[in-house]
């Protein structure tokens, strides 16, 4: 194998020498039978060297182009990520602005009441649907028993308060009870929190006036009885109805108007 390689090496050196000689003779002697013969022998070698040189040059250019393409692609990818982030930020700002405008409109519409706008800062550690924490407290005029709402409807009541925070028990909590009336018929009832239904962000309507039928889709609102919740605040709508064997209503499942699991800002009625 070594002898074979050595022979081929010598052959290449010889051919290269012939090609070089052809260049020299052609340069000093011009075209004549000798240079023509030498060039004829060396021509394939010249072509081979030329092909190799072009191939190496093309390979080098290809590598440089690939590096440039990769750099451009990385730059474009980074720019695309940044544009997506900016787009998300803009959408979030628009959504927040929309919520704040609705809250301000609600606050302005309740000119007969004193209200304080607050932001949700935490949910209950044990059961998120039981209570939420807001960033306003006694320093802002908030007290226990204050009703908490959003432009969509009722959230719950303040059950604990500090100087700069307050805990709000939602209508999904099992200790919650809200006197309501059915908007369509005026029939009365009580909405209560239910531990099982709360897992699906739902609550229960019971003690409904049996002389007033209700149907799926009926909207229920605060009745104002009991002196806790002002009348006319939307609570939710009827999702399903459970009746006994005689057709009498046992209870109805209510879908709250407020998405408790997606709260951001609320309005506290302080007076």
Secondary-structure topology with pairs:
Layout: H1 2-29, H2 33-109, E1 115-123, E2 131-134, E3 147-150, E4 153-161, E5 166-170, E6 177-182, E7 188-192, H3 195-198, E8 203-206, E9 219-222, E10 234-243, E11 249-256, E12 265-269
Secondary-structure element pattern, one letter each = HHEEEEEEEHEEEEE
> Strand sequence of the main sheet, in spatial order?
1-2-5-4-3-12
DSSP strand (E) fraction? 25-35%
Structural class: alpha+beta
Q: What's the average pLDDT?
A: 79
Main sheet properties: 6 strands, antiparallel, barrel
* Structure annotation, total helices: 3
**Beginning-to-end CA distance, first to last residue:** 103 Å
Number of strands: 12
Summarize, please.
It contains three helices and twelve strands. It has helices at residues 2-29, 33-109, 195-198, and strands at residues 115-123, 131-134, 147-150, 153-161, 166-170, 177-182, 188-192, 203-206, 219-222, 234-243, 249-256, 265-269.
Outline the structure in words.
The protein is 40% helix and 27% strand. It has helices at 2-29, 33-109, 195-198; strands at residues 115-123, 131-134, 147-150, 153-161, 166-170, 177-182, 188-192, 203-206, 219-222, 234-243, 249-256, 265-269. The chain has 271 residues and is of the alpha+beta class. The strands form 2 sheets. Strands 1-2-5-4-3-12 form a 6-stranded antiparallel β-barrel. Strands 6-7-8-11-10-9 form a 6-stranded antiparallel barrel. The mean pLDDT is 79. It has 3 helices and 12 strands, in the order ααβββββββαβββββ.
């Amino acid at each position: 194998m070594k002898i074979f390689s050595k022979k081929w090496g010598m052959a290449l050196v010889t051919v290269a020498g012939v090609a070089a000689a052809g260049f020299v003779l052609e340069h000093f002697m011009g075209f004549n039978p000798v240079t023509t013969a030498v060039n004829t022998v060396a021509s394939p070698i010249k072509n081979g060297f030329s092909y190799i040189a072009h191939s190496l040059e093309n390979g080098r250019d290809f590598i440089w182009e690939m590096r440039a393409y990769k750099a451009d692609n990385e730059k474009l990818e980074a720019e695309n990520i940044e544009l997506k982030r900016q787009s998300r930020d803009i959408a979030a700002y628009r959504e927040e602005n929309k919520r704040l405008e609705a809250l301000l409109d609600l606050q302005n519409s309740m000119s007969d009441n004193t209200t304080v706008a607050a932001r949700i800062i935490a949910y209950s550690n044990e059961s998120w649907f039981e209570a939420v924490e807001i960033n306003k407290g006694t320093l802002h005029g908030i007290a226990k028993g204050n009703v908490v709402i959003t432009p969509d409807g009722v959230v719950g009541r303040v059950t604990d308060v500090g100087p700069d925070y307050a805990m709000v028990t939602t209508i999904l909590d099992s200790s919650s009870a809200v006197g309501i009336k059915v908007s369509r018929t005026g029939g009365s009832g009580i909405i209560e929190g239910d531990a099982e239904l709360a897992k699906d962000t739902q609550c229960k309507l019971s003690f409904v006036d049996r002389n007033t039928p209700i149907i799926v889709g009926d909207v229920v609102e605060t009745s104002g009885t009991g002196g806790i919740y002002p009348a006319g605040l939307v609570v939710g709508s009827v999702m399903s109805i459970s009746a006994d064997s005689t057709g009498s209503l046992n209870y109805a499942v209510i879908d709250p108007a407020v998405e408790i699991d997606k709260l951001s800002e609320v309005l506290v009625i302080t007076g």
